[in-house]
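Below is how a single chain appears once it has passed through the pipeline. First comes the sequence as given, then the structure the pipeline wrote out for it. We keep one example in the README because the format questions we get most often are answered faster by looking than by reading.
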Amino acid sequence: MRSLLIFILVLIAIWWVRRALTRFDRSRPGADGKKRSRAAEAERMLGCAHCGLHVPESEGLRVGEDFFCCEEHRRLGPRR
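Resulting structure:
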């Protein structure tokens, strides 16, 4: 009887630890490969029309069809 009780307690402890670890993994962003934040996703890199430097699309400036890496290069315009 004592061995059976110890066996059941060990099983309950293993179940509790596995459940706690699963909850911890789910709370981390990107842990399951499906929940990825916008920052973790790949972003398009575009070349500046003035200097040719490639920067992420969200960090540059778009004017019509032209893309610039900074305000100064937008002001100077595309180098042709």
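The mean pLDDT is 85.

See the next section for the split statistics.
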